[in-house]
Amino acid sequence: MSVARRITLGVLVATVLALVLADLSAPRPDPWMTLAAIGQGILHPDLSDPLSLFNGAVLTLAFALCGVGLGAVAGLVLAPLYHLAPVRFLCVAIRALHELFWALLLMNITGLSPLTGVLAIGLPYAGIFAKVFSEYLDEAGRGGEQALPPGLGAVTRLVWVRYPAVLPQMAAYTLYRLECGMRSSAVLGFIGLPTLGFQLETWFRQAEYDRAVVVLAVFFLLILPIRHWARWRLMPVYLLASVWALLRVEVPPMGSGALARFLSDIVPAPLRTGADWGGWLDKVFVQQAWPGVVDTLVLGQLALVLAGWLAALAFPMIVPRVAGRLGAMLGHGVLVLLRSTPEYMLAFVLLQILGPSMLPAVLALGLHNGAIIAHLMGRQAATLPLRPDAPRGLTLWGWELFPRLMGNFRALCLYRWEIILRESAIMGVLGLGTLGFYVQTNVAELRLDRVMALLLVTVALTLAVDALSRRLRRRLQPDSRLRIEGMRGQG
User: Where are the transmembrane segments (predicted)?
Assistant: First the structure.
């Protein structure tokens, strides 16, 4: 049996097991009533508080710009050192935790302050930037250094030759990360930071859908045209304005000694108070970590399969020879809308409609990641050379495009697996039984030693799945161009 077939069989078995373990019931008595109310809100939007919307939009941008800027600068410094094992391990560890987990942790030190939001975005992004920038430097090689006189130091060669050689790629990737940072910034509002996510959660929970849909519209008006307003020559102005806006945010007092209390509280309780190690380990790892890991894996597996199915069916939507020119434009618009919507935000909205179960999270993760994979595959399909008598429409998709892109399709799904798992963990903050549920519960109870233990479990789980994914991708040996451009650009 080939490697591809063994992987497919393994995915099928894991999916069946996940379906057995998953809670996909939708207990909400009448989702159509909620949908009707949302529809009324769309038809009759409430624009009575433009100042609040403006403030939320400005702060959403400010958190994103400052957080991504911090991550990019740190990544630029760490990239040349990424080959060192301690640096690489540090970068892997900090990017394995979602921004929402970082925010929940940092709130115990810096409170609901702008610094919390900026660091929550900047820390994991620093690890991501360091990895990607180091790959750019490796691909550029050292050929340009031959023109320099001998005896120059490594820093001089790095600054004057290697960085300039890859500056366009770094700039393009940073702008893409700004789009990701805006999604992260909006999601941070769900834990109390004053971004658009805070307003969206407030109005949805109060069933004021006429105001909630306006918040969503403002978010899309910010993120969809990002490539038009995010100009490098304007970035210094944007950053200065962002710092000014964040400095004006009122910060609730934290009291003195927050850092000292945090460092004390993360020490396991048996070491601090002499509590029983057996009871502490049972509570953290048996009663919380184990069910959290199981639910995280179950949710991630179902979302991965749904994303794969949607991508396979949707990528022809943006190929003109399949969908036609007008159909490709419409399909592109749908995919852009889905991949621009944060999974957490989409899951929250679906949760209000379908009720508390895994189903909203599975749909949200599947739609978002499926749109990303479909976009990458559609872009690749549009560049494939075709014979003159190649068919059009669905025949071209089923008999020509999809078979030729099958290797890349498997590789992209495996790559998104680690990212989907990372997002699955935070879905517990919405009340699902994944690791995020137990992290948030212990944060609320100020049991930070348990929080740290659960976060370490989250990091270990993410790294294990990432390692398995990379190993399987190497065995599949996909096309290198799509692997480098597509996977890196949509990480």
Answer: 53-79, 100-126, 212-230, 297-315, 344-367, 419-439, 451-468
Pick the CATH number of 45-265 from 3.40.50.2000, 3.30.1360.40, 1.10.3720.10, 2.60.40.1270: 1.10.3720.10
Is the pLDDT score of 471 beyond 50?
Answer: yes
The dihedrals phi and psi of 196, each to the nearest 5 degrees, come to -60, -30
Contact between 197 and 189 (Cβ < 8 Å):
yes
DSSP conformation class of 149: P
Direct distance between the N- and C-terminal alpha carbons of the chain, in angstroms, rounded to an integer: 31
**pLDDT tens column, 159-183:** 767 778 888 889 999 999 999 999 9
What ranges in 189-208 are assigned the alpha helix state H?
196-205
CATH topology of domain 1-30+275-491: MetI-like fold (1.10.3720)
Read off the DSSP letter of residue 383: T
Alpha-helical regions (H) of 315-357:
320-340, 343-354
* Pairwise CA distance, residues 449 & 108, whole Å: 12
Q: What separation in angstroms does the CA of 447 have from each of 96, 297, 394, 455?
A: 22, 25, 56, 13
Q: Could you tell me the two tokens for 375?
A: 């976009």
Question: What is the amino acid identity at position 408?
Answer: N
Residue range 425-455, pLDDT digits in tens: 999 999 899 999 999 999 999 899 999 999 9
Amino acid in the structure at residue 54: F
Yes or no: say if 96 and 458 are a contact pair by the CB < 8 Å rule: yes
- Report the candidate in 237, 431, 217, 396 with the shortest Cα–Cα distance to residue 320: 396
CB 339 within 8 A of CB 277: no
